[in-house]
């Protein structure tokens, strides 16, 4: 299983003992995400994150939106603000490996790039 999911159980346990993976993070979860938002809220709380009920529209350090393809229109305020939008595997795999990888689990990258270009042209 460790080989399949590219992690070391001993390393993950060691990192987990050092502190909560998402300590200091604020996370919003969109409505169609699976596991559903109430389950994700429990997972996030366990990992040390603060759960945000509403979609953020202003960037902050350690602020992330967890979403899915179905909820792309809901993410536009976050995308426009440059807030990272990621899939659930960011959290689920992140907890398993005890590491955060925004880039690998980023969603809507094309939309984010076009938003950056639009801002640069202004």
UniProtKB/TrEMBL annotation:
PANTHER family: MEDIATOR OF DNA DAMAGE CHECKPOINT PROTEIN 1 (PTHR23196:SF34), PAX TRANSCRIPTION ACTIVATION DOMAIN INTERACTING PROTEIN (PTHR23196). The lineage of its organism: Eukaryota, Metazoa, Spiralia, Lophotrochozoa, Mollusca. Gene3D superfamilies: BRCT domain. GO terms for biological process: DNA repair. Keywords: DNA damage, DNA repair, Nucleus, Phosphoprotein. InterPro entries: BRCT_dom, BRCT_dom_sf, DDR_Transcriptional_Reg. This is BRCT domain-containing protein. Its main location: nucleus. The keyword DNA repair applies. The keyword Nucleus applies. It comes from the Eukaryota. One of its GO terms (cellular component) is nucleus. It is found in: Nucleus. Residues 20-102 form the BRCT domain.
């Amino acid at each position: 299983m460790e080989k399949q999911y590219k992690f070391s159980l001993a390393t993950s346990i060691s990192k987990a003992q050092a502190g909560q993976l998402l300590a200091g993070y604020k996370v919003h979860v969109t409505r169609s995400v699976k596991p559903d938002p109430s389950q994700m809220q429990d997972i996030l709380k366990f990992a040390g994150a603060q759960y945000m009920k509403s979609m953020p529209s202003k960037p902050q350090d350690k602020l992330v939106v967890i979403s899915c393809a179905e909820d792309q229109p809901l993410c536009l305020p976050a995308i426009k603000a440059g807030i990272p939008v990621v899939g659930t595997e960011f959290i689920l795999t992140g907890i398993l490996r005890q590491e955060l990888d925004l880039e690998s689990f980023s969603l809507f990258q094309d939309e984010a790039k076009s938003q950056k270009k639009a801002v640069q042209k202004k």
